[in-house]
């Protein structure tokens, strides 16, 4: 039963992807390949680009900045979230700032980021963290605050030490929410890094995307879009599956 | 409070002794809205006694249990368990089962039951022996690898009881453990609880809303007043130790529940803000006055 459910979910995803490709091909026929390259042309161009050293440098730069940002945003978010969820005084200070950060278009903060980090890798990492961290803080703090009080009582009556309670009750109790927050962080950090590369970087997929838009290089634009779509989609699906298993 | 020697532990003290315990929950605005939950509770339990506590909603039954367990320090009075004061933490030898499902959903039934033992330095073989016995005893043998989400509410509560049982408590505190269950399951769980009590010879303190449950299970039933809660009466059931739910058919069963209700009705009305009617204060006419009664400050009965 479990196996059948898993297969059906994969088939559902494949069906959606197939529908998107068909739609893409139909639009391509309608507007012409000069305006919108076909799926086949895009895949062929992707293979060509992946073989080029310059593209590999851009891909690697984005991957590197993304991994660093993701680690900083998720680890920092969990740490601040635990402090915020555990102590009301800290939460009163942290939560409004995080909510404002989520609501503010981050591009507005770019001059400030540049002022602190200058042009280059640190700025786009900071931009990635700025996108990914606030949701993790909010979700972790909420998870901690919504832990059932009965677990604390049960731990007391089982005479658990503080360390055992934290390690074997608190962490497992909030783990599903941590996975969910990591999923959000995974997507938003990628967005932040790409936006950072678009505005103030000489390397990376974001930078290449901006250059391609300027040169009206449709095949490269679609190639980058395709790579990001596949990466984000696959990552999100894997995390969603993992998230469901933890509940 | 006079008791015979046989009512006491070998050291001459009651197994559990609650002396003039009161609890005030601090409110806001400089103490103007402080809530006095308990006012002067006195209670002694003999080793191996099954005591049930009933009372109107909000009278402080669960607060009393939290204080006895050591989860909540009392603002007044003392609690002695086996002659030692309970203060600040749950003493070794006390096990608690709550009304709410306290099983850990991320663990299997086996791991839930073993949880308390794992972090107390028991050897793996001893953990296995105790857990398998508890799981078998509570009728969960076929579900050891299931998670709580795959079990019914009654089975989850049995997991919690088994988790308490493996620690071999000498005093078991139960805070309305069957409140969320249907009537048939409650009766069956009550029978299992009696079986557990007979096998372990532990002292049991059961908090319940149900008059039937209290009458069926307990050696002695304490009736609490409306807030601030204090004991207004103790009734001795005088049931044989090997009782089960068949005792519902016993003629004295109705007498005892009627007697309990006559004590409780006035307090329930008072807790709801009403006045007890004259009928509430009257003695029941169905022979309930034949039930042995003890005053609030009087100690309990022996089985």
**Tally of separate helices of chain B:** 8
The rounded distance between the terminal residues' Cα atoms of chain A is: 18 Å
Our estimate of the beta-strand percent of chain A is under 5%
Q: How far do the termini of chain B sit from each other? A: 18 Å
Q: Helix/strand-derived class of chain B?
A: alpha/beta
* Average pLDDT reading of chain A: 90
Can you tell me the CATH superfamily of chain A? MetI-like
Most extensive protein-chain contact, per-chain counts: A-B, 18 and 23 residues
Structural class of chain A: mainly alpha
Sequence of secondary-structure elements of chain B = EEEHEEEHHHEHEHEEHHE
Number of strands of chain A: 0
Q: Radius of gyration of chain B in whole Å, from Cα?
A: 19 Å
CATH class of the largest domain in chain B: Alpha Beta
Number of domains of chain B: 2
CATH architecture level-2 label of the largest domain in chain B: 3-Layer(aba) Sandwich
Estimate the mean pLDDT confidence of chain B: 83
**CATH fold naming of the largest domain in chain B:** Rossmann fold
Q: What's the CATH H-level superfamily name of the largest domain in chain B?
A: P-loop containing nucleotide triphosphate hydrolases
Biggest sheet of chain B, strands in spatial order? Answer: 6-7-8-3-9-10-11
Features:
heterodimer; A: MetI-like fold; 0% strand; globular; B: 303 residues; alpha/beta; seven-stranded mixed sheet; 8 helices; disordered C terminus
Task: Give an overview in words.
The complex is a heterodimer of chains A (247) and B (303). With 247 residues, chain A is mostly helical. Chain A has one domain: MetI-like (MetI-like fold, Orthogonal Bundle), CATH 1.10.3720. Chain A contains 10 helices and no strands. Chain A is globular, with a radius of gyration of 22 Å. The two termini of chain A are 18 Å apart. Chain B is α/β, with parallel strands linked by helices and 303 residues long. Chain B has 2 domains: 3-93 and 170-281, 3-Layer(aba) Sandwich (Rossmann fold); 105-168, no CATH class. In chain B, 32% of the residues lie in helices and 20% in strands. Chain B is built from 8 helices and 11 strands. Chain B has helices at 61-69, 109-118, 124-137, 153-165, 183-200, 211-217, 251-271, 278-281; strands spanning 16-25, 35-45, 50-54, 76-81, 84-85, 94-97, 171-175, 203-207, 220-224, 231-236, 293-294. Chain B has a 7-stranded mixed beta sheet with strand order 6-7-8-3-9-10-11, sandwiched between helices. Chain B has a 4-stranded antiparallel beta sheet with strand order 2-1-4-5, with helices on one face. In chain B, helix 2 (109-118) runs parallel beside helix 4 (153-165), helix 3 (124-137) crosses helix 4 (153-165) and helix 6 packs across helix 7. The radius of gyration of chain B is 19 Å and the shape is globular. The chains are: A mainly alpha (247), B alpha/beta (303). Chains A and B meet through helix 7 and helix 8 of A and strand 6 of B.
């Amino acid at each position: 039963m479990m196996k059948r459910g898993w297969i059906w979910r994969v088939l559902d995803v494949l069906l959606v992807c197939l529908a998107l490709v068909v739609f893409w091909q139909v639009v391509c026929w309608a507007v012409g390949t000069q305006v919108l390259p076909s799926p086949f042309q895009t895949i062929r161009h992707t293979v060509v680009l992946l073989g080029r050293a310059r593209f590999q440098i851009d891909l690697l730069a984005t991957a590197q900045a993304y991994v660093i940002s993701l680690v900083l945003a998720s680890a920092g978010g969990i740490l601040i979230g635990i402090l915020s969820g555990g102590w009301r005084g800290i939460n009163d200070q942290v939560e409004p700032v995080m909510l404002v950060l989520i609501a503010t278009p981050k591009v507005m903060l770019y001059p400030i980021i540049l002022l602190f980090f200058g042009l280059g890798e640190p700025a786009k990492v900071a931009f990635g963290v700025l996108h990914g961290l606030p949701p993790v803080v909010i979700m972790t703090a909420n998870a901690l605050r919504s832990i059932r009080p009965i677990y604390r009582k049960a731990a007391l009556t089982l005479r658990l030490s503080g360390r055992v309670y934290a390690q074997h009750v608190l962490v497992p109790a909030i783990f599903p929410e941590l996975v969910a927050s990591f999923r959000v962080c995974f997507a938003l950090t990628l967005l932040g890094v790409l936006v950072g590369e678009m505005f103030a970087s000489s390397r990376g997929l974001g930078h290449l995307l901006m250059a391609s838009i300027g040169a009206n290089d449709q095949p490269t634009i679609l190639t980058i879009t395709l790579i990001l779509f596949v990466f984000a989609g696959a990552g999100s699906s894997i995390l969603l599956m993992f998230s469901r298993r933890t509940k | 409070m006079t008791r015979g020697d046989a009512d006491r532990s070998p050291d001459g003290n009651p197994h559990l002794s609650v002396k003039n315990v009161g609890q005030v929950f601090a409110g806001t605005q400089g103490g103007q809205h402080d809530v006095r939950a308990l006012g002067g509770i006195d209670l002694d339990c003999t080793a191996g006694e099954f005591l049930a506590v009933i009372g109107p909603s909000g009278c402080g039954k669960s607060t009393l249990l939290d204080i006895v367990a050591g989860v909540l320090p009392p603002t007044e009075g003392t609690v002695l368990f086996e002659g030692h004061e309970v203060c600040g933490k749950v003493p070794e030898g006390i096990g608690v089962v709550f009304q709410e499902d306290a099983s850990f959903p991320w663990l299997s039934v086996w791991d839930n039951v073993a949880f308390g033992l794992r972090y107390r330095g028991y050897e793996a073989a001893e953990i296995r022996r105790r857990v398998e016995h508890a799981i078998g005893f509570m009728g969960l043998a076929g579900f050891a690898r299931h998670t709580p989400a795959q079990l019914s509410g009654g089975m989850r509560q049995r997991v919690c009881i088994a988790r308490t049982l493996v620690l071999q408590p000498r005093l078991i505190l139960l805070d309305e453990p069957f409140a969320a269950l249907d009537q048939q399951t409650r009766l069956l769980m009550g029978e299992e609880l009696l079986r557990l009590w007979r096998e372990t010879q532990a002292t049991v303190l059961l908090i319940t809303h149900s008059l039937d449950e209290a009458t069926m299970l307990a050696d002695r039933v304490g009736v609490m007043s409306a807030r601030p809660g204090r004991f207004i009466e103790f009734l001795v059931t005088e049931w044989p130790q090997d009782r089960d739910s068949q005792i519902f058919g016993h003629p004295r069963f109705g007498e005892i529940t009627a007697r309990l209700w006559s004590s409780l009705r006035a307090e329930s009305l008072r807790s709801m803000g009403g006045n007890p009617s004259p009928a509430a204060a009257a003695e029941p006419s169905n022979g309930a006055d034949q039930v042995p009664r003890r005053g609030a400050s009087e100690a309990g009965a022996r089985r």
